[in-house]
Specification:
This protein is mainly alpha-helical and 247 residues long. It has twelve helices and no strands.
Amino acid sequence: MLAKPSSDLSLTMLNQAEKKERAQFILNWLSEKYPDPKAPLDHEDAFTFLVAVALSAQTTDARVNLVTPALFREANTPKKMASLGAPRILHHIKTCGLAPTKAKNLEKMSKILCEKFGGIVPDNFEDLESLPGVGHKTASVVMSQVFNVPAFPVDTHVFRIAKRWKLSRGRSVEETEADLKALFQKELWSKVSLQIIFYGREFCTARGCDGHACPICSQLNGTQAPRARSRPVKQKNSPRKTGTPSR
């Protein structure tokens, strides 16, 4: 039986055993609702996936999927992207958030990939995070989705919801990532991250749930809420099947 917490999820902290119990309940619910989550960014290979993830900052996945087809028709390799140049890149991505900065970063990133890494996307965190416009979250997504290296990407949904569900105190992204890694099995990190993201978009939005309204928050608060549907809901913006390399 899931322990009933305080009526205000922000008032009390849980011990690790209570967090583990809560995490298992959440995992069961998410696994029923989103049994096989896929990264919702259209791509062809490691490089185009890296570009798409970098573009997704401060931008919806749907918007990224609208702008990348034309961009990738002109430049789907580091060499072509570097030659395209920031002004032309900007032409393609201008409707994305922070477009001018992203265009410059994509040009610089592509040049470095060509000059330092032989046009190949590196398969380790240190080298990925050395690239312009590639932070730890972007590197985590690429490492987990492209190279099958366990990682727990923490975006705004994951950061907010982990605190709302009392799985982390949420004082920093780094703390939240460490807390979540301690609660879920290593081989599930990437999957759970995507499941939380999809759940946050569908149910537990910043304005749509105050920590009591959505199904999981309601049950964590000891009130009745709908069970997850037994039939998986079709996810929006499902990526096309690609030949993404893996290790």
